[in-house]
Amino acid sequence: MKNFSIGLNIVLLIAVIVLYVLHFSGNGGNAGKQTGQVAVAPDAKIVYINMDSLLSNYLQSRELNEAFLKKVEDNRTDLNMKAKRFEEEVMAFQQKLENNGFISRERAEQAQAELMVKRQNLQKLDQELMEKTQREQIELNQKLYTEITDFLKEYNKTKGYQMILSTTLGGNVFYAEEGFDITKDVVDKLNQQYTKE
């Protein structure tokens, strides 16, 4: 995974260098404006997509994330209710212990051992929920990644770009001339495809 990340960063660095060379060699023309949006330069061969913008405007991404967050919230609420019931049992045990409410010392130790098992089970449930949440987040991200890359393969058949980069706020593309950002066009077409399905 580390080698993949290093390789991806090298490819992106090369792409940024190519963009830099294209920019300062005078090959990049000024892109015209269409209804307030920057048109993609007709001679652009390397373009980029702002993934933050794409994911926040892509309907399927929003729906999947909202469903995921609702599920996480429901799981957290359920866990919190179990934790509260456990705390009440602990307080009842302590109160009973202080009031000499146990028939024998063995019975008090048995009740304490039962509480320890419940605490361990609660901690185990918390860990399992965290791991399950992480797995589901990875699956959701993989699903979106696959949807977007499959779409881009088809999209690029008519566009003919040599490279489509992905960037985020503070990502690898720090600057690009107007006419290299295809985010809006991709989001519009992804949403059209998604609403048809």
Structure description:
With 197 residues, this protein is mostly helical. The chain has one domain (2-196): Skp domain (Protein Binding, DinI Protein, Chain A, 2-Layer Sandwich), CATH 3.30.910.20. The protein has helices at 2-24, 51-57, 59-98, 105-159, 183-196; strands at 33-34, 37-38, 46-50, 163-167. The strands form 2 sheets. A two-stranded antiparallel sheet has the order 1-2. It has a two-stranded parallel ribbon with strand order 3-4. The longest helix is centred in the C-terminal third of the chain and has 55 residues, at 105-159. It is rod-shaped and about 85 Å long. It starts with a helix and ends with a helix. 10% of the residues are buried. Mean pLDDT is 81; it is low at 1-5 and 18-36.
Keywords for this entry:
mainly alpha, Protein Binding, DinI Protein, Chain A, 197 residues, 71% helix, 5 helices, 4 strands, rod-shaped, two-stranded parallel sheet
Short description:
The protein has 197 residues and is mainly alpha-helical. The protein is built from 5 helices and 4 strands, in the order αβββαααβα.
How many distinct folded domains? Answer: 1
In whole angstroms, the N-to-C terminal distance is 34 Å
Q: How do the strands line up in the largest sheet?
A: 1-2
Percent helix, as a range, is over 70%
CATH fold title: Protein Binding, DinI Protein, Chain A
Structural class: mainly alpha
Describe the biggest sheet? Answer: 2 strands, antiparallel
**Rounded radius of gyration (Å):** 27 Å
Judging from the principal axes of the Cα atoms, what is the shape? rod-shaped
Please name the fourth-level CATH homologous superfamily.
Skp domain
- Strand segment count: 4
Mean pLDDT: 81
User: What fraction of residues sit in β-strands?
Assistant: 5-15%
